[in-house]
Structure to design on (292 residues):
Protein backbone atom coordinates (compact mmCIF):
# COMPACT_ATOMS: atom_id res chain seq x y z
CA UNK A 1 0.00 0.00 0.00
CA UNK A 2 2.85 2.41 0.88
CA UNK A 3 4.46 1.74 -2.51
CA UNK A 4 1.14 2.53 -4.21
CA UNK A 5 0.96 5.88 -2.42
CA UNK A 6 4.59 6.71 -3.28
CA UNK A 7 4.16 5.80 -6.95
CA UNK A 8 0.85 7.66 -7.17
CA UNK A 9 2.48 10.71 -5.55
CA UNK A 10 5.44 10.60 -7.96
CA UNK A 11 3.20 10.11 -10.99
CA UNK A 12 0.75 12.84 -9.99
CA UNK A 13 3.35 15.53 -9.27
CA UNK A 14 5.98 14.63 -11.84
CA UNK A 15 3.58 14.05 -14.76
CA UNK A 16 2.81 17.77 -14.98
CA UNK A 17 5.63 19.51 -13.17
CA UNK A 18 8.61 19.91 -15.55
CA UNK A 19 10.66 17.23 -13.80
CA UNK A 20 9.78 14.06 -15.82
CA UNK A 21 7.42 11.50 -14.28
CA UNK A 22 9.00 8.61 -16.19
CA UNK A 23 12.45 9.64 -15.01
CA UNK A 24 11.32 9.84 -11.39
CA UNK A 25 9.62 6.45 -11.55
CA UNK A 26 12.73 4.80 -13.04
CA UNK A 27 15.06 6.43 -10.49
CA UNK A 28 12.55 5.78 -7.68
CA UNK A 29 12.37 2.07 -8.51
CA UNK A 30 16.16 1.87 -8.59
CA UNK A 31 17.00 3.83 -5.44
CA UNK A 32 14.09 2.67 -3.25
CA UNK A 33 14.32 -0.96 -4.39
CA UNK A 34 10.60 -1.05 -5.12
CA UNK A 35 9.08 -3.84 -7.15
CA UNK A 36 7.75 -3.04 -10.61
CA UNK A 37 4.23 -1.68 -10.30
CA UNK A 38 2.86 -3.81 -13.11
CA UNK A 39 1.37 -2.84 -16.45
CA UNK A 40 -2.22 -2.43 -15.22
CA UNK A 41 -1.13 -0.36 -12.22
CA UNK A 42 0.85 1.91 -14.54
CA UNK A 43 -2.21 2.31 -16.79
CA UNK A 44 -4.39 3.36 -13.88
CA UNK A 45 -1.81 5.85 -12.59
CA UNK A 46 -1.85 7.51 -16.01
CA UNK A 47 -5.65 7.42 -16.00
CA UNK A 48 -5.63 9.29 -12.68
CA UNK A 49 -3.40 12.07 -14.00
CA UNK A 50 -5.40 12.22 -17.24
CA UNK A 51 -8.59 12.82 -15.25
CA UNK A 52 -6.90 15.69 -13.41
CA UNK A 53 -6.39 17.51 -16.75
CA UNK A 54 -10.13 17.32 -17.43
CA UNK A 55 -10.85 18.73 -13.96
CA UNK A 56 -8.41 21.67 -14.11
CA UNK A 57 -9.05 22.58 -17.77
CA UNK A 58 -12.70 21.56 -17.97
CA UNK A 59 -13.84 24.99 -19.18
CA UNK A 60 -11.21 25.16 -21.93
CA UNK A 61 -11.94 21.61 -23.05
CA UNK A 62 -15.71 22.23 -23.04
CA UNK A 63 -15.26 25.43 -25.06
CA UNK A 64 -13.23 23.59 -27.70
CA UNK A 65 -15.70 20.71 -27.97
CA UNK A 66 -18.76 22.98 -28.12
CA UNK A 67 -16.98 25.34 -30.50
CA UNK A 68 -16.10 22.51 -32.86
CA UNK A 69 -19.71 21.29 -32.85
CA UNK A 70 -20.88 24.82 -33.68
CA UNK A 71 -18.09 25.19 -36.27
CA UNK A 72 -16.51 28.13 -34.47
CA UNK A 73 -13.38 29.03 -36.53
CA UNK A 74 -11.23 29.82 -33.48
CA UNK A 75 -12.09 26.60 -31.63
CA UNK A 76 -11.74 24.51 -34.81
CA UNK A 77 -8.30 26.02 -35.29
CA UNK A 78 -7.41 25.24 -31.66
CA UNK A 79 -8.49 21.61 -32.05
CA UNK A 80 -6.58 21.41 -35.34
CA UNK A 81 -3.36 22.54 -33.66
CA UNK A 82 -3.76 19.84 -30.98
CA UNK A 83 -4.31 17.16 -33.65
CA UNK A 84 -1.39 18.48 -35.72
CA UNK A 85 0.93 18.43 -32.69
CA UNK A 86 -0.13 14.87 -31.89
CA UNK A 87 0.94 13.48 -35.28
CA UNK A 88 4.76 13.77 -34.91
CA UNK A 89 4.44 12.65 -31.27
CA UNK A 90 2.69 9.45 -32.35
CA UNK A 91 5.15 8.82 -35.20
CA UNK A 92 8.17 9.19 -32.90
CA UNK A 93 6.61 7.23 -30.04
CA UNK A 94 5.56 4.29 -32.23
CA UNK A 95 8.54 4.41 -34.59
CA UNK A 96 11.14 4.25 -31.81
CA UNK A 97 9.04 2.23 -29.35
CA UNK A 98 11.58 -0.54 -28.70
CA UNK A 99 14.48 1.91 -28.30
CA UNK A 100 12.50 4.09 -25.90
CA UNK A 101 11.35 1.12 -23.82
CA UNK A 102 14.96 -0.05 -23.57
CA UNK A 103 15.96 3.27 -22.00
CA UNK A 104 13.63 2.56 -19.06
CA UNK A 105 16.09 -0.17 -18.08
CA UNK A 106 19.04 2.25 -18.06
CA UNK A 107 18.74 4.48 -14.95
CA UNK A 108 22.02 6.29 -15.60
CA UNK A 109 20.85 7.33 -19.07
CA UNK A 110 17.66 8.61 -17.44
CA UNK A 111 19.74 10.70 -15.02
CA UNK A 112 21.63 12.26 -17.95
CA UNK A 113 18.28 13.06 -19.58
CA UNK A 114 17.20 14.76 -16.33
CA UNK A 115 20.29 16.99 -16.55
CA UNK A 116 19.31 17.88 -20.12
CA UNK A 117 15.80 18.76 -18.93
CA UNK A 118 17.33 21.09 -16.35
CA UNK A 119 19.29 22.82 -19.12
CA UNK A 120 16.09 23.36 -21.13
CA UNK A 121 14.27 24.78 -18.11
CA UNK A 122 17.12 27.10 -17.12
CA UNK A 123 17.64 28.53 -20.61
CA UNK A 124 13.87 29.02 -21.13
CA UNK A 125 14.13 32.32 -19.22
CA UNK A 126 15.92 33.78 -22.26
CA UNK A 127 13.18 32.66 -24.64
CA UNK A 128 11.13 35.33 -26.43
CA UNK A 129 8.45 35.09 -23.72
CA UNK A 130 10.70 33.81 -20.93
CA UNK A 131 11.22 35.40 -17.52
CA UNK A 132 13.79 37.85 -18.95
CA UNK A 133 11.08 39.32 -21.20
CA UNK A 134 8.12 39.82 -18.82
CA UNK A 135 6.44 42.48 -21.00
CA UNK A 136 6.35 40.36 -24.16
CA UNK A 137 2.73 39.27 -24.65
CA UNK A 138 3.82 36.69 -27.19
CA UNK A 139 2.45 35.54 -30.51
CA UNK A 140 -0.43 33.21 -31.33
CA UNK A 141 -0.06 29.53 -32.05
CA UNK A 142 0.12 28.60 -35.74
CA UNK A 143 0.54 25.39 -37.72
CA UNK A 144 4.36 25.28 -37.77
CA UNK A 145 4.69 26.10 -34.06
CA UNK A 146 2.19 23.32 -33.28
CA UNK A 147 4.18 20.91 -35.45
CA UNK A 148 7.51 21.79 -33.80
CA UNK A 149 5.93 21.44 -30.34
CA UNK A 150 4.61 18.00 -31.36
CA UNK A 151 8.12 16.93 -32.41
CA UNK A 152 9.49 18.12 -29.06
CA UNK A 153 6.76 16.17 -27.26
CA UNK A 154 7.76 13.08 -29.23
CA UNK A 155 11.40 13.49 -28.19
CA UNK A 156 10.18 13.82 -24.60
CA UNK A 157 9.13 10.16 -24.78
CA UNK A 158 12.73 9.59 -23.67
CA UNK A 159 12.50 8.89 -19.92
CA UNK A 160 14.07 11.73 -17.98
CA UNK A 161 13.12 14.43 -20.49
CA UNK A 162 10.10 16.26 -19.14
CA UNK A 163 7.18 16.45 -21.56
CA UNK A 164 5.73 19.61 -20.03
CA UNK A 165 9.15 21.17 -19.44
CA UNK A 166 10.39 20.64 -23.00
CA UNK A 167 7.16 21.61 -24.79
CA UNK A 168 6.55 24.76 -22.72
CA UNK A 169 10.21 25.78 -23.10
CA UNK A 170 10.00 25.25 -26.87
CA UNK A 171 6.88 27.40 -27.12
CA UNK A 172 8.47 30.18 -25.07
CA UNK A 173 11.51 30.12 -27.37
CA UNK A 174 9.09 30.46 -30.31
CA UNK A 175 7.49 33.46 -28.65
CA UNK A 176 4.18 31.89 -27.57
CA UNK A 177 2.44 33.51 -24.60
CA UNK A 178 3.46 31.76 -21.34
CA UNK A 179 -0.06 31.12 -20.07
CA UNK A 180 -1.21 29.81 -23.43
CA UNK A 181 1.94 27.65 -23.71
CA UNK A 182 1.05 25.95 -20.43
CA UNK A 183 -2.56 25.37 -21.44
CA UNK A 184 -1.62 24.05 -24.88
CA UNK A 185 1.05 21.76 -23.45
CA UNK A 186 -1.46 20.04 -21.18
CA UNK A 187 -4.26 19.93 -23.74
CA UNK A 188 -1.97 18.28 -26.28
CA UNK A 189 -0.97 15.76 -23.61
CA UNK A 190 -4.51 14.34 -23.59
CA UNK A 191 -4.14 12.38 -26.89
CA UNK A 192 -0.48 11.60 -26.09
CA UNK A 193 -0.98 10.26 -22.56
CA UNK A 194 -4.38 8.80 -23.40
CA UNK A 195 -3.03 7.08 -26.51
CA UNK A 196 -0.09 5.58 -24.62
CA UNK A 197 -2.41 4.35 -21.86
CA UNK A 198 -4.75 2.85 -24.49
CA UNK A 199 -1.91 0.93 -26.14
CA UNK A 200 -0.82 -0.40 -22.75
CA UNK A 201 -4.42 -1.35 -22.00
CA UNK A 202 -4.66 -3.33 -25.26
CA UNK A 203 -1.38 -5.03 -24.39
CA UNK A 204 -2.71 -5.87 -20.92
CA UNK A 205 -5.91 -7.34 -22.36
CA UNK A 206 -3.84 -9.55 -24.66
CA UNK A 207 -1.84 -10.66 -21.64
CA UNK A 208 -5.01 -11.91 -19.96
CA UNK A 209 -5.46 -14.44 -22.75
CA UNK A 210 -1.91 -15.76 -22.35
CA UNK A 211 -2.49 -18.75 -20.08
CA UNK A 212 0.06 -21.33 -19.02
CA UNK A 213 -1.42 -23.83 -21.45
CA UNK A 214 -1.29 -21.45 -24.40
CA UNK A 215 2.34 -20.60 -23.64
CA UNK A 216 3.20 -24.29 -23.42
CA UNK A 217 1.62 -24.98 -26.82
CA UNK A 218 3.39 -22.03 -28.40
CA UNK A 219 6.76 -23.17 -27.06
CA UNK A 220 6.36 -26.68 -28.49
CA UNK A 221 6.51 -25.48 -32.10
CA UNK A 222 8.85 -22.53 -31.62
CA UNK A 223 12.47 -22.06 -32.66
CA UNK A 224 14.99 -21.24 -29.90
CA UNK A 225 14.76 -17.52 -30.74
CA UNK A 226 10.96 -17.60 -30.78
CA UNK A 227 10.90 -19.57 -27.54
CA UNK A 228 13.01 -16.93 -25.81
CA UNK A 229 10.72 -14.17 -27.08
CA UNK A 230 7.60 -16.07 -25.94
CA UNK A 231 9.13 -16.69 -22.52
CA UNK A 232 9.99 -13.00 -22.07
CA UNK A 233 6.46 -11.97 -23.06
CA UNK A 234 4.96 -14.54 -20.70
CA UNK A 235 7.12 -13.24 -17.85
CA UNK A 236 6.04 -9.64 -18.51
CA UNK A 237 2.41 -10.71 -18.66
CA UNK A 238 2.77 -12.56 -15.36
CA UNK A 239 3.88 -9.25 -13.82
CA UNK A 240 1.13 -7.21 -15.55
CA UNK A 241 -1.08 -7.18 -12.47
CA UNK A 242 -4.81 -6.72 -12.08
CA UNK A 243 -7.48 -4.89 -10.11
CA UNK A 244 -6.54 -4.46 -6.43
CA UNK A 245 -7.38 -2.02 -3.59
CA UNK A 246 -3.79 -0.72 -3.86
CA UNK A 247 -4.50 0.18 -7.47
CA UNK A 248 -7.43 2.41 -6.47
CA UNK A 249 -5.30 4.12 -3.85
CA UNK A 250 -2.50 4.78 -6.33
CA UNK A 251 -4.95 6.13 -8.91
CA UNK A 252 -6.63 8.42 -6.37
CA UNK A 253 -3.28 9.76 -5.14
CA UNK A 254 -2.08 10.41 -8.71
CA UNK A 255 -5.37 12.20 -9.47
CA UNK A 256 -5.20 14.47 -6.41
CA UNK A 257 -1.54 15.39 -6.82
CA UNK A 258 -2.03 15.78 -10.56
CA UNK A 259 -4.53 18.58 -9.86
CA UNK A 260 -2.14 20.17 -7.34
CA UNK A 261 0.78 19.98 -9.80
CA UNK A 262 -1.22 21.49 -12.68
CA UNK A 263 -2.39 24.49 -10.66
CA UNK A 264 1.03 24.97 -9.09
CA UNK A 265 2.84 24.91 -12.43
CA UNK A 266 0.44 27.36 -14.11
CA UNK A 267 1.03 29.76 -11.22
CA UNK A 268 4.83 29.43 -11.48
CA UNK A 269 4.65 29.82 -15.25
CA UNK A 270 2.63 33.06 -15.17
CA UNK A 271 4.89 34.52 -12.48
CA UNK A 272 7.99 33.87 -14.62
CA UNK A 273 9.48 31.31 -12.23
CA UNK A 274 9.41 28.33 -14.60
CA UNK A 275 13.22 28.14 -14.81
CA UNK A 276 13.54 27.58 -11.04
CA UNK A 277 12.58 23.91 -11.51
CA UNK A 278 15.97 23.43 -13.21
CA UNK A 279 17.78 23.37 -9.86
CA UNK A 280 15.64 20.52 -8.59
CA UNK A 281 15.99 18.51 -11.82
CA UNK A 282 19.76 18.95 -11.82
CA UNK A 283 19.89 17.80 -8.19
CA UNK A 284 17.87 14.66 -9.06
CA UNK A 285 20.09 13.87 -12.04
CA UNK A 286 23.36 14.33 -10.13
CA UNK A 287 22.04 12.41 -7.10
CA UNK A 288 21.03 9.53 -9.36
CA UNK A 289 24.39 9.42 -11.15
CA UNK A 290 26.23 9.37 -7.80
CA UNK A 291 24.16 6.68 -6.08
CA UNK A 292 23.00 4.42 -8.92
Amino acid sequence: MIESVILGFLQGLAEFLPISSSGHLVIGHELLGMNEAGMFFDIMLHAGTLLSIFVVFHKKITDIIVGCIRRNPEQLREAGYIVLASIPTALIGLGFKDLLEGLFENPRAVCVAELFTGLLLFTSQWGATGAKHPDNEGVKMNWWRALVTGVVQGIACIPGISRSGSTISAMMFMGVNRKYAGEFSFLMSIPAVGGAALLDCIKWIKCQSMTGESVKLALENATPEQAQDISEKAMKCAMAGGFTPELLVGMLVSFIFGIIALKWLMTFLQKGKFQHFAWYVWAVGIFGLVFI
